[in-house]
Amino acid sequence: MSESVIDIVAAPDHLGIPRWHAVTSPGSVAGVADLRPVMPFEYELPPQTAPQPGTLELNLYVQPQWRRRGIGSRLLAAVGAHAVGQRLIVETAPDSAAQSFCERHGFRRTGSGSHDLLSYCDVHHAWLGELVDVEHPGYRLRHWTGDPCGATSVEQLLRHPSGPGAAVVSAAEADGGVAAYVVAMTGALPQVRARQYGPAVLVGDRGQRLGLWVNAALLTRLREIHPHVEEIETRTADGDSDLVALRRHLGFRPLGRRLRYELTLP
Ligand SMILES: CC(C)(COP(=O)(O)OP(=O)(O)OC[C@H]1O[C@@H](n2cnc3c(N)ncnc32)[C@H](O)[C@@H]1OP(=O)(O)O)[C@@H](O)C(=O)NCCC(=O)NCCS
Question: What does UniProt give as the signal peptide span (predicted)?
Fold first, then answer.
């Protein structure tokens, strides 16, 4: 089929996540793009790498047999028309088609790290339970589920009642507010895989294993709420040795390198 008859069609999902399909014939999709909000992690990341509020994560995928025909570029153009003036983040493997694609389209490289994966089948649930049960005097665990719907901080999310949705948050609260938190997002493809952001621990609350506590709590909670989730992926920025150690301790395995690219749309 000629590229000229491929249509780029807006196909937002049931949660309102903006999504576009490259449709080759009725019911046949050659490529997909979607945009998801990035949770801000001001406690975890140095300011120069922390995503700005309103930053969107771009997921772009073209079926292998349809690549190098301009479909990815057309999907990106549809994204650009929708998200005027916003900042996009993309994660790619080094020396990949996606890296060449990003550089061709003017994305700027802003960081690197490892792509890590944890499979529930590798985790002892009783051990997780023991981690969750450890007392942390002065702190209490809180959980939240729902859809972020434009919230720019975990504090904002926790002010809303929990409900059905793609996000699961576990937080350690003290009298002064949230001290540590970690977020998982479900609903990406493949459905059995969730994506984790954090844990992030407030500077003044570090050194008390709160990150491990909230992460163990999240792993337990996520499986209760979304039993179809079998694995969790995350990215660990280079140089963050504490986070690397925590994730290895919990059983996250490195899958490969990841480069982060950003583009501010005109
Ligand atoms: C990255 C991806 C979406 C590109 O889709 P695509 O439809 O093949 O992209 P386009 O045809 O629009 O390519 C535009 C330009 O990107 C560059 N590019 C794309 N694939 C490339 C490759 N394999 N090698 C070198 N350059 C490449 C080229 O400059 C290309 O222009 P050209 O064909 O005129 O030389 C696709 O390879 C893919 O789905 N990869 C797996 C998913 C992924 O890694 N996504 C990460 C998010 S970007």
Answer: none
* CA pair distance 189, 193, nearest whole angstrom: 7
Q: Residue 105 carries which DSSP code? A: T
The CATH number that applies at residue 124 is: 3.40.630.30
Tell me which residue has its CA closest to atom 21 in ligand 1.
97
- b or e along 145-176 (b: 16 or more beta carbons within 10 Å of the residue's beta carbon)? bbbbeebeebeebbeeebeebbbbbbbbbbee
Q: Could you give the maximum distance between any two Cα atoms of the chain, in Å?
A: 65
Q: Is 61 in the pocket of ligand 1 (CB under 6 A)?
A: yes
- Cα of 106 vs centre of ligand 1, distance in Å, is 13
Question: Which numbered atom of ligand 1 lies nearest the CA of 101?
Answer: 16
Verify whether ligand 1 is closer than 6 Å to residue 68 (CB atom).
yes
Task: Report which of 172, 171, 163 is spatially closest to residue 145, judged by C-alpha positions.
Answer: 163
Atom from ligand 1 closest to the CA of residue 63: 39
Is 145 close to ligand 1, i.e. is its CB under 6 Å away?
no
CB proximity list for 133: less than 8 A, separation 6 or greater = none
Q: Do 141 and 96 sit in the same domain of this protein?
A: no
Token code pair at residue 132: 């969750």
Closest-lying ligand 1 atom to the alpha carbon of residue 60: 47
pTM over 0.85: no
Residue 72, token pair as written in the block:
């990815």
Indicate whether 162 belongs to any domain.
yes
Query: Is residue 259 a part of any domain in this protein?
Result: no
> Residues 244, 152: one domain?
yes
Q: Same structural domain for residues 159 and 216? A: yes
| Ligand 1 atom 28: residue of nearest CA | 101
Give the Å distances, CA to CA, from 209 to 143, 200, 205: 18, 11, 9
